[in-house]
Amino acid sequence: MNAIYAARAPHAGRLFNSLSPYAARAPHAGRLLNSLSPYAARAPHAGRLFNSLSPDGGEGWGEGRSRNAARLRIAATALAALLSLVPAHAAAALNIVTTTEGLATLAKEAGGDKVQSQSLSRGIQDPHFVDANPALAVKLRAADLLVDVGLDLEIGWLPPLVNQSRNPEIQPNGPRRFTAASVIHVLDVPTGPVDRSLGDLHPAGNPHFMDDPRAAVAVVAGLARKLSQLDPANAATYAQHSADFQRRIEADLARWKSVFAPLRGRPIVAQHQTMSYFFDWTGLRAAGYLEPKPGVPPPPSHLANLVQIVKAQGVKAILVENYYDTRSAEVVSRHSGAKVVLIPGDVGGMPGASTYESYLDTLVRLVAGAER
Questions:
Q1: Fewer CB within 10 A of the terminal residue: the chain, N end or C end?
Q2: Which of helix, strand or coil describes residue 275?
Q3: Model's pTM, two decimal places?
Q4: Domain boundaries, position 78
Q5: Is there a contact between 102 and 346 (Cβ–Cβ < 8 Å)?
């Protein structure tokens, strides 16, 4: 990074050489000024400022202590200004921007302290609907890597933000774009024609895979490979982070599966088709959905039919992500006796679910608890 800034500062040498008479009075000042030289270009007039302080600029040290003291005060002020421009870390971390809070957590798992990650949405939000405000485009403009879920989850808001960002490398299939769905086994892929009559059906498959720890392991491994392409010097570190995450999750997965072992085959009602991956690894099954079609509000006739299904199959729990309206779930609960269970939709969706593992711990606790 220093080389980049040095190229922007052709006069940096003269700028800091002019301070040499003062450096002798501060034991480490010489090294300090040399270390600052790459950043001098960020202060366009610094050269003239410091040249004016030079003893050979027309005024010498013998002209009085007061003049020297004034010059030293000016030099100290100028140094403080330049120091404020110096980055906090000599080697800047890769700036990863993700579409969801869960992906930001997984990006941090893959990158560790070599990356900083931030999400365009929060875990308490429905990821289908995010306000595409200009501030998000600004974040994307500075992104070293954009990580999206894919499978059209963000189709309603991400494309305009990417266009507004004017960052050509994060466009779809760009060198600094990583789509998490590209590395997982996708479920619920439609087999026939898809049109609006089927609701908000995702034509390439179900994008709600963050509640599947097997998918999370695959995403972190894919991110580690992508980061290694962007930052080859730290490839071994990224590979190690991925291996460490896989080890942790495999141990957790054995524990979580043991919780659901006696509950395999139990029927559950969910709000939206967000639980397919969760049901796949836990052995639970969907008895029905509050939505008659994905994204379509339920009419009274659908809820009445669902009440009969719940009674007939002995459904104990109705799972609803806490960003959804619960009124339809409460109607079914009131007429069937099944319990409405609010669950986090992603990392950060509830207090105590700030990491991927704590998010899964919360989800397992709430669902298994409702089934007992």
A1: C
A2: coil
A3: 0.76
A4: 2-83
A5: yes
